[in-house]
Design brief:
The complex is a heterodimer. Chain A is built from 7 helices and 15 strands. By secondary structure, chain A is of the alpha+beta class. In chain A, the strands form 4 sheets. In chain A, strands 1, 2, 3, 4, 5 and 6 form a 6-stranded mixed beta sheet that branches. Chain A is elongated and about 75 Å long. A 4-stranded antiparallel beta sheet of chain B has the order 4-3-5-8, sandwiched between helices. The chains are: A alpha+beta, B alpha+beta.
Chain lengths: 319, 191
C-alpha cells in the first residue's frame, strides 16, 4: 500500500522507502490519511477486531488453562487449585486469586525487574471484571462448609503485547476458569482432603453412595464449574471523529483517547474504564463503544463456544 | 531511570494508601489520576521538568477516587501550574433496585450493586465568548474525561449515572471555582 497511487514498478522500491520514512517521521499524519478513507494501514476496517482464537487445555499440568490470541497479542492463563480453610466471614465460599504478569518476552518496552505500568492496570481491571461480573460462583468452590474449600490461583501471562491487553487477558482468564475441572476428592474423618485417583463423574457418584452408606465420608466427584454469563472486553481508541475497535500497540500509542468497555453475554455492563486521556468522550462516543462491545461479545462468545466444544467434547453446556 | 522528555513536562503521580504497601489498586489509581491531569496541564510549557503529584489517603469513607482527583486539581492550582481548565470529579452508586444515588460512603459502596467515579472537565469561563463551547453538539463539560466502575449494572443505569453525575459535576465545579477565588482573595489581602 502506498500513499501515492499509480507508481511505476521501477519506482516501487523507493516509494516503499518513502512510505516507511513518512510513517516514522509523522506517525499521526500517516494514520490520519488512512482513517479518512475509513481503513487502517493494515487494511482492517475501523470497527473490526483482529482475528481471535481460543485454545483450551494448553497446559496439561494445570487444572484449567487457555491460550488466547487476538491478532498478535497472546495471553496464556493457567488455573491451579489448592485446599484452604475458608474464612469465618464466608464459611461456604472458596476464593479466586488473579495474578497478571508481563514478562520481558512480551514487548521490547518491558524491562526485566521493573513491571510495566500496563501490567498493574490490566491486573487491577482484570480482578475487577471477574469480581464485578460474579463470573465464578464462589460457593461451588466449597468442599466442606467451614472446613475446606478450593482456592483457584489464576495466573495470566502476556506472551506478546500488541495492544488491547485487557481484552485478551480477560478472555484467557475466563476461558481457563471455564475449562477448569475440580478434581474428585474425598474428605477423611480427620478432615484431610484427599484426591481420588481413578474416578470420573459416574464412578464418583457410585463411590459417593457407597461411601455414604459405609464410612460416612464426603466425596466430591470431578466436575466443572457451572457456566454463567461470560464477561468480554473491547478496547476502543478514538481520534477526532473516528472510532477504532481493538487497537494494536502502535495505534494505542499514537491515537488520543482509549477506553475499555466490558459487557457480559447477558447484556450487563461490567465495566466502563476510561482513564483520562487527551480527549473527553461525548455521549455519542459512549453509545457507539457500547454498541461495538455488544457485537464483539456475540462474536467472541461464538468463537469461545467452538473452542469449548472442541476441547471438552460433547459435554452438556449449562447456560 | 527517570523518563525525561525534552519536549514537555512529565507528570508523576504517587498514591499512598492509608496503610499497607502499594498494590495494583494504588498503581491503577496513579495511572487514572495521571492521565486525567494530562488533560488540563499544559505540559509543553515546561520541557525537561517533572510535575509530581503526591496523594496521601488520610481517610477512606467512599468516593475516594473522585476526592483524590478534586484534591489533585486544587493542589495544582495552589502550586500555580498553568492549567487550561479545571476538573470536577463525582461518584455515584446504583442500588440493587436500580436507584442511582450520588456520593456513596464506604458502607454504601460495599452494599450497593455497583458504583462509578467520573471526572468531567469544568465548565470554561471563556474570555472570548464567541468561541464554540460545544463538542459534537454537547457542552465541553458534558464530556466524560474519566470513568471507573466497580460492579455490574445495566447499560441504562450507566447512562442514568452519567446524567446525574453531570449535574453534580456542575455544582462541584462552581464550588471549586468559588473556593479558589476566595482563597486567592484571602492571600492577596494577607500580603
Amino acid at each position: 500500500m502506498t500513499i501515492t497511487g499509480g507508481i511505476a514498478e521501477a519506482d516501487a522500491a523507493s516509494a516503499t522507502m518513502e512510505v516507511e520514512a513518512y510513517k516514522r517521521l509523522y506517525p499521526l499524519q500517516f494514520y490520519e490519511r488512512h482513517l479518512d478513507s475509513d481503513v487502517r494501514p493494515d487494511g482492517r476496517p475501523l470497527t473490526r477486531a483482529r482475528p481471535t482464537s481460543v485454545n483450551l487445555g494448553s497446559i496439561a499440568t494445570a487444572d484449567g488453562s487457555a491460550l488466547v490470541k487476538i491478532g498478535n497479542t497472546t495471553m496464556l492463563a493457567g488455573v491451579k487449585l489448592e485446599v484452604i480453610t475458608p474464612s469465618t466471614a464466608s464459611p461456604n465460599q472458596g476464593q479466586v486469586a488473579v495474578d497478571f504478569q508481563m514478562p520481558s518476552i512480551c514487548s521490547p518496552l518491558v524491562r526485566p525487574g521493573r513491571p510495566a505500568e500496563a501490567a498493574w492496570v490490566v491486573s487491577e481491571q482484570l480482578s475487577n471484571a471477574l469480581v464485578s461480573s460474579n463470573f465464578v460462583n464462589l460457593q461451588q468452590l466449597c468442599i466442606v462448609p467451614g472446613k475446606a474449600a478450593w482456592i483457584a490461583y489464576v495466573d495470566v501471562y502476556c506472551l506478546d503485547a500488541d495492544g488491547s491487553l485487557l481484552d485478551a487477558a480477560l478472555l484467557a482468564a475466563v476461558a481457563a476458569l471455564t475449562h477448569l475441572q475440580l478434581p474428585a476428592v474425598k474428605v477423611t474423618e480427620t478432615g484431610r482432603v484427599v484426591p481420588l485417583k481413578n474416578h470420573n463423574g459416574d464412578a464418583g457418584q457410585e463411590v459417593d453412595s457407597i461411601a455414604k452408606k459405609n464410612e460416612d465420608q464426603i466425596v466430591k466427584s470431578r466436575q466443572r464449574l457451572e457456566r454463567s454469563s461470560m464477561p468480554i472486553a473491547l478496547t476502543c481508541v478514538s481520534h477526532r471523529k473516528h472510532l477504532l475497535a481493538d487497537p494494536s500497540a502502535e495505534e494505542e500509542s499514537i491515537l488520543q483517547m482509549s477506553l475499555t468497555v466490558i459487557m457480559d453475554t447477558s447484556g450487563r455492563l461490567i465495566s466502563f474504564y476510561k482513564p483520562g486521556g487527551a480527549v473527553a468522550a461525548t455521549s455519542a462516543t459512549v453509545k457507539d463503544c457500547i454498541e461495538l462491545t455488544k457485537k464483539r461479545v456475540a462474536e467472541v462468545n461464538s468463537i469461545f463456544e467452538e473452542a469449548y466444544e472442541e476441547a471438552c467434547g460433547t459435554e452438556m453446556m449449562v447456560e | 531511570m527517570k523518563k525525561e522528555n525534552a519536549e514537555r513536562a512529565i507528570i508523576e503521580v504517587v498514591w499512598r494508601a492509608k496503610s499497607g504497601l502499594s498494590g495494583s489498586y494504588e498503581k491503577d489509581a496513579e495511572v487514572v489520576v495521571r492521565r486525567s491531569l494530562e488533560y488540563i496541564i499544559l505540559t509543553a510549557l515546561h520541557p525537561n521538568t517533572a510535575i509530581s503529584v503526591i496523594l496521601q489517603v488520610i481517610n477512606d469513607d467512599g468516593s475516594l477516587l473522585a476526592c483524590a482527583m478534586n484534591a489533585a486539581c486544587a493542589a495544582l492550582v495552589d502550586a500555580g501550574i498553568p492549567l487550561n481548565g479545571l476538573l470536577s470529579a463525582v461518584s455515584c452508586g446504583v442500588t440493587h433496585d436500580g436507584q442511582v444515588f450520588l456520593d456513596p460512603t464506604k458502607p454504601e459502596e460495599q452494599k450497593c450493586k455497583a458504583y462509578v467515579s467520573f471526572v468531567f472537565p469544568s465548565r470554561r469561563l471563556s474570555a472570548v465568548p464567541e468561541l464554540p463551547a460545544d463538542v459534537d453538539g454537547e457542552p465541553v463539560e458534558y464530556g466524560i474525561l474519566t470513568s471507573v466502575t466497580r460492579g455490574a449494572m445495566e447499560v441504562e443505569e450507566y447512562f442514568s449515572c452519567v446524567e446525574n453525575c453531570r449535574a453534580a459535576a456542575a455544582k462541584v465545579s462552581e464550588f471549586s471555582r468559588s473556593s479558589i477565588e476566595q482563597s486567592l482573595k484571602g492571600n492577596r489581602d494577607g500580603c
